[in-house]
């Protein structure tokens, strides 16, 4: 929000108007000031309390209210059911109810007070079709039906409000959706290219909602300089309400080729954060404006 204050100088300058703006974004909180219309750049990242358990990889994250849930993943070579919860309102961590199945490379998406876990790879190295649902009010897990029609890992699931959409991933090059009650589903929509290890975010609301997929990786034997992997600047949007066919549109390419991007919407812009490319892990942050199709 904004806080306005006024200052008067007897020694010169007269009245000055100050505006203080406070923002929250994930684990980052910032405060900045503007004087008489001058808007400085946003300050640097602020470190919050580190996660209190051992570091994990291959997990997914979803937010409900002031809490961010880090779910599953792996420690070293062991897949886990562990759920860690960060409360942004008091900068604290707590343990959540473990998942029903240990898995990594899965996707999770929040819808109301529920979080849905889709696909991934289990402890037997099997790629999964299953969907599990966490009730964050009671901290209880349940099996959700129907399962996905295709086994997927390193994919993206997004919530449009009523249906849950799942895109691509290793083992699939299609889009499928299911309503929150499980009564309706569809698995017949193709994708313009095969995508995995991408970032994804939902933007807007029905009937103008779009799912954006950003970045990806493709394993190619010729890409020796990247350990047999090629990274891309790919950006595609998907509108399920577009009556024209296909429902896919290519958007402006991301400036930096990378995979495993974290994507978030803030102030009608999409922030593409971090990821990996030929040089290794990156701390790059790039901002996309859908209205102008520019980065």
Strands, total number: 28
| Helical/strand content category | mainly beta
Radius of gyration: 21 Å
Molecular shape: globular
Helix content: under 10%
- Separate helix tally: 0
Strand percent estimate:
over 45%
Give the SSE order as H and E letters.
EEEEEEEEEEEEEEEEEEEEEEEEEEEE
> Main beta sheet: strand number and arrangement?
4 strands, antiparallel
Instruction: Let me know the average pLDDT.
Output: 84
How are the strands ordered across the major sheet?
4-5-8-9
For the record, give the distance between the C-alpha atoms at the N and C termini, rounded to a whole number: 26 Å
Taking pLDDT < 50 over at least 5 consecutive residues as the criterion, the unreliable ranges are: 1-35
Explain briefly what this protein structure is.
With 295 residues, the chain is mainly β. 0% of the residues lie in helices and 48% in strands.
Entry keywords:
mainly beta; four-stranded antiparallel β-sheet
What features would you describe in this structure?
- Helices cover 0% and strands 48% of the residues.
- The protein is globular.
- It has a four-stranded antiparallel beta sheet, with no helix packed on it. A four-stranded antiparallel beta sheet has the order 11-12-14-15, with no helix packed on it. The chain has a four-stranded antiparallel beta sheet with strand order 16-17-18-19, with no helix packed on it.
- By secondary structure, the chain is mainly β.
- The protein contains no helices and 28 strands.
Describe the secondary structure blueprint for this structure.
Layout: E1 2-9, E2 14-25, E3 28-35, E4 60-64, E5 67-71, E6 74-75, E7 78-79, E8 83-87, E9 92-95, E10 103-104, E11 107-111, E12 114-118, E13 121-122, E14 131-135, E15 140-144, E16 156-159, E17 163-167, E18 174-179, E19 185-190, E20 199-203, E21 210-219, E22 229-238, E23 248-250, E24 262-266, E25 269-273, E26 276-277, E27 280-281, E28 285-288
Antiparallel strand pairs: 1-2, 2-3, 4-5, 5-8, 6-7, 8-9, 10-13, 11-12, 12-14, 14-15, 16-17, 17-18, 18-19, 20-21, 21-22, 22-23, 24-25, 25-28, 26-27
């Amino acid at each position: 929000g904004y806080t306005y204050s006024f200052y008067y100088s007897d020694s010169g300058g007269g009245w000055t108007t100050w505006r203080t703006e406070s923002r929250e974004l994930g684990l980052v909180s910032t405060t900045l000031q503007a004087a008489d219309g001058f808007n400085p750049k946003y300050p640097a990242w602020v470190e919050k309390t580190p996660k209190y358990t051992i570091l994990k990889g291959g997990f997914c994250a979803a937010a409900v209210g002031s809490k961010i849930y880090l779910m599953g993943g792996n420690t070293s070579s062991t897949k886990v059911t562990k759920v860690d919860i960060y409360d942004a309102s008091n900068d604290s961590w707590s343990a959540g109810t473990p998942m029903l199945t240990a898995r990594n490379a899965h996707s999770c998406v929040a819808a109301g007070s529920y979080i849905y876990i889709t696909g991934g790879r289990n402890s037997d190295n099997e790629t999964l079709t299953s969907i599990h649902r966490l009730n964050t009010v009671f901290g209880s897990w349940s099996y959700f039906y129907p399962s996905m029609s295709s086994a997927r890992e390193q994919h993206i699931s997004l919530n449009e409000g009523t249906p849950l959409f799942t895109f691509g991933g290793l083992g699939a090059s299609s889009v499928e959706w299911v309503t929150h009650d499980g009564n309706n589903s569809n698995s017949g929509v193709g994708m313009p290219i095969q995508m995995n290890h991408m970032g994804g975010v939902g933007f807007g609301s029905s009937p103008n909602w779009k799912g954006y997929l950003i970045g990806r990786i493709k394993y190619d034997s010729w890409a020796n300089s990247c350990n047999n992997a090629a990274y891309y600047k790919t950006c595609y949007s998907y509108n399920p309400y577009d009556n024209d066919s296909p429902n896919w549109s290519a958007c402006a390419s991301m400036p930096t080729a990378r995979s495993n991007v974290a994507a978030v919407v803030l102030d009608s812009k999409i922030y593409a954060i971090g990821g990996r490319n030929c040089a290794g892990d990156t701390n790059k942050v790039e901002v996309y404006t859908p209205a102008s199709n520019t980065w």
